[in-house]
Design a protein that fits this description.
heterodimer; A: Beta Polymerase, domain 2; 7 helices; 7 strands; 24% helix; B: alpha+beta; Cytochrome-c3 Hydrogenase, chain B; three-stranded antiparallel sheet; 18 helices
């Protein structure tokens, strides 16, 4: 790694004393308080040549953790060829976590934040158009949260609005018993999907010792 | 672009003020030949000029990240095939290296060379499809026929190596599924030798083709600054003049040993994106040839990583320790330390990243897949505005995205 991106953490700490180093197995990584994220990312972009926001996502540390949701940014420098990971704890309560939007710094953050909102339910404050991107509008859950089961939860299907608009009723693809899906008889999906049933894979209970 | 119309006579010109006009909304896709999969673009048109274009994605969302949290590291390899399903071998490699970074494991040189060869062949195959489909989008059918003939030859090679033509699932954490068959390398060189003249022929059909140039030059130009702001990577970013290639900048799997050039565009338009891909295929052939010329002897998987790579089958059948080891890796998964890593590989479509958060054990706690097509598509609302509807087709073809990866 080149010299100018090498020791970013200590250079940043002079300006932002609340930054702490984050455990990482590869790139340099920092923890930043939510209210300073925008300023820190801007400094990284403008003063330390981390010009490309390559990834933006979140981690759910499961129900009851404090903090439960952490937003993680990965920046890359197209000139110095280095990565940096920036993590920030979400504010707000478990049901409605919040983080500042970085769309003002990178236009590309738009879709990343929409996806993170869709999957985790994190509200990015200041985002111009925060709505679902992968799931359909009106979908009631946030599937990448740890309390959402792998087998899924049967829900009403898209948008009654669209059905009304097009005059075409939307019929759900069968979750079981369809022409290409094995039937599970009387069970529902959560009981039938073996891995969803297996408590050892669940975050809320410890995996039993082998 | 010419905006003045030639009116048949002055009376007609004066009459325009009396017509009531309104903007038309047009939904292109989700199953439209030029959207290459299930992408829908909700457009607002003023005549034939696009005033707003809003991509609607998610039709192919399968929840790969959720699935990854619920299975062992090796079990997820087949799912990586289905990300960018035009270059499964490159995805396999990117995923395997990401997990190996987590385990702090370096695979032997022979394994690295095998992965480089397969990844570069996958790049050629992906670019051939991209080019063929782009040709069709702009009215040149012949290119597609030529490029698919070459892809078929590549599929034969993939089948011989991995047992599958399409969904290869070739890598394992700490190695590959099997060593290269005897004589396979020679057949790859044979392919490369006959491929180069055909590639020139394919490119010659487009590069100075008047119709193709009319459809692509100065169409969908993306500036350097925009490309970076939207997180574009791969050929699309390089076409805009940013020489970013992770194979050169952050070499992995021994890419630093090979001599190759990074083609960089100037205007960032559809035509430049085409030129960059064409040149990349030539460079890929160079890399493949070098890798085969200096093909290392030795192990093709990390022999010392006993808790990560399953022992050879004959040992499993004859020795108790190996049997137990095999059983543990298959049921519990390759054992990883706790921690987090982020690894990006230079895939045909751009930087494919895996962010893995581990709490230890054989299953990731969280795995985020950074899909290049997702980021590349996010610039669509910006580049399409002001273009004609037919230009949108050309832009889509030149961005060369895969919805399997975009929607995950």
């Amino acid at each position: 790694m080149s010299s100018s991106t090498a020791d970013v953490t200590s250079a940043l700490q002079e300006k932002f004393p609340n930054i702490t180093a984050r455990d990482s197995l590869d790139h340099q990584a920092i923890n930043v308080p939510a209210d300073e994220v925008l300023a820190v990312l801007q400094a990284l972009r403008d003063e330390h040549a981390f010009d490309l926001l390559t990834d933006l996502t979140a981690i759910d540390w499961s129900e009851g953790s404090d903090p439960r949701f952490v937003v993680v940014y990965h920046l890359y420098s197209t000139t110095q060829h280095g990565y940096i990971r920036v993590a920030t704890d979400c504010t707000g309560d478990e049901e409605s976590p919040k983080a500042p939007s970085v769309t003002s710094l990178w236009a590309g953050a738009d879709w990343h934040e929409r996806e993170t909102y869709d999957m985790f339910g994190i509200t990015f404050e200041g985002h111009p158009d925060l709505r679902r991107i992968l799931m359909w509008p009106g979908y009631p859950y946030h599937p990448l949260r740890k309390d959402f089961p792998l087998a899924g939860i049967e829900t009403e299907l898209p948008d009654p609005e669209i059905a009304a608009e097009t005059g075409t009723p939307v019929i759900a693809a069968p979750m079981m018993g369809g022409p290409f899906v094995a039937s599970t008889g009387e069970m529902n999906m959560t009981e039938a999907e073996p891995r969803a049933k297996d408590e050892s894979w669940n975050e809320s209970s410890e995996k039993p010792e082998a | 672009m010419a905006t003045e119309f030639a009116y048949p006579d002055a009376a007609a010109k004066n009459a325009t003020g009396e017509f009531e006009t309104e903007k038309m909304s047009l939904s292109m896709g989700p199953s439209h030949p030029s959207t290459h999969g299930v992408l829908r673009i909700q457009m607002e048109l003023d005549g034939e000029v696009v005033t707003k274009a809003e991509p609607v994605i998610g039709y192919l969302h399968r929840g790969d990240e959720k699935i990854a949290e619920n299975m062992t590291y090796n079990q997820f390899v087949p799912y990586t095939d289905r990300l960018d399903y035009l270059a499964p071998l490159a995805n396999n490699m990117a995923y395997a290296i990401a997990v190996e970074r987590l385990a702090n494991l370096e695979v032997p040189e022979r394994c690295q060379a095998i992965r480089v060869i397969t990844a570069e062949l996958a790049r050629i195959s992906a670019h051939l499809l991209g080019l063929g489909a782009f040709g069709i989008d702009t009215g040149a059918w012949t290119v597609f026929m030529y490029s698919f003939t070459e892809r078929e030859k590549l599929y034969k090679l993939f089948e011989e190596l991995t047992g599958a033509r399409f969904t290869t699932s070739y890598t394992r954490i700490g190695g590959v599924a099997r060593d290269v068959p005897e004589g396979w390398n020679d057949r790859v060189v044979e392919f490369c030798d006959q491929f180069l003249p055909i590639l020139e022929e394919i490119l010659a059909m487009l590069t100075r083709n008047k119709i193709f140039m009319d459809r692509t030059v100065d169409v969908g130009a993306i500036s350097k600054e925009d490309a970076i702001a939207y997180g574009l990577t791969g050929p699309n970013l390089r076409a805009s003049g940013v020489p970013m290639d992770l194979r050169k900048d952050k070499p992995y799997s021994g890419y630093e040993k090979y001599d190759f050039d990074i083609p960089v565009g100037k205007n960032g338009d559809s035509y430049d994106r085409y030129l960059v891909r064409g040149e990349e295929m030539r460079q890929s052939v160079r890399i493949v040839k070098q890798a085969i010329k200096n093909f290392p002897e030795g192990d093709w998987y990390a022999k010392d990583a006993k808790k990560i790579f399953t022992p050879p089958k004959d040992k499993v059948m004859s020795s108790m320790e190996e049997l137990i080891n095999n059983f543990m890796i298959v049921t519990e998964g390759p054992q990883m330390p706790a921690g987090e890593v982020y690894f990006e590989a230079e895939n045909p479509k751009g930087a494919l990243g895996f962010y893995i958060v581990s709490k230890g054990g054989g299953v990731p706690y969280r795995m985020k897949i950074r899909a290049p097509s997702f980021c590349n598509l996010s610039i669509l609302p910006k580049v399409c505005v002001g273009m004609m509807v037919s230009d949108v087709v050309s832009i889509l073809g030149s961005l060369d995205f895969v919805m399997g990866e975009c929607d995950r």
